[in-house]
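debug: dumping io for the single-chain case to check the tokenizer round-trip. Nothing else runs in this session.
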Amino acid sequence: MSRPRSSDPAKPLTFSMATSLHTRLNNHISFEMSRSAWIANAIVAKLDRDGQGDVDHWTTDELLQELQYERFKDDKSSAGQIKFLRELLSV
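debug: decoded output
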């Protein structure tokens, strides 16, 4: 007996990303996590959040990522401290 078909089947995609972004993604996800699922969830979160313009719906980790990778990307000391906070909070 075959399994039922999905009501929302997956569509394979191929896209390019900068090596530095690929490295950041690999450092962010664990070996147990699905890269495809993580990217799909990030896209859904971004689409759901677009137009809101506020951070009320962001998780703590998303706020810290914004600080680490955008606001303080040129300030290595602050970025390092934020990275430490993210690691500390993820335990």
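debug: round-trip ok. The chain has a mean pLDDT of 83.
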